[in-house]
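quick one
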Amino acid sequence: MTQADRKRWLFGLATCVFLFFTTSIAASPTQTDPDIVMRESMVIMARQLGVTCTHCHDPKNFKSATMKTHQKAKEHMRVTAWLNSQNGLAGKPHIDCYTCHRGEPSPKPEKPTPKK
Ligand code: HEC
Ligand code: HEC
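structure w/ heme C:
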């Protein structure tokens, strides 16, 4: 390898490293692949309920909607979206599962009994 070859090789390597970082940084904040968006929203939802994926999904078939918790979750996703769409709230403050669940899979809907 001559001095000039070595320089060209190093320049090529530096370009690759530069391109790798700039493209990966540019790609991360605006993820639009619907499968990845779905997965990311699932991770958030699971965290807000303090559960893992198998609380609502049959690990042998993620597309199955037979679990009671899956059906309930779908209803509650609708409720959450509806709440966010109402005038007077209109997404501010933003309602999500954590608003009611507080990290619990099944929050108590009743008022606490007052202590005497
Ligand atoms: C609280 C219940 C719940 C939890 C926990 C949950 N999911 Fe889901 N998941 C659902 C529901 C409900 C749907 C269907 C959404 C719809 O039909 O709009 C769904 C849909 C999906 C889909 C799309 C399936 C399809 O039919 O294309 C994937 C993939 C998925 N979830 C992955 C995950 C992963 C991975 C986790 C764990 C990080 C997870 N889910 C945790 C309730 C849950
Ligand atoms: C307005 C309040 C509220 C919001 C918002 C809400 N939930 Fe719920 N959820 C409850 C209450 C209260 C319960 C317990 C009573 C019941 O099971 O009906 C519950 C129960 C559930 C259950 C059944 C738990 C079990 O073990 O049977 C699932 C699953 C669930 N919620 C998923 C979700 C998901 C996912 C979201 C966000 C997309 C969400 N909820 C948003 C109030 C809420």
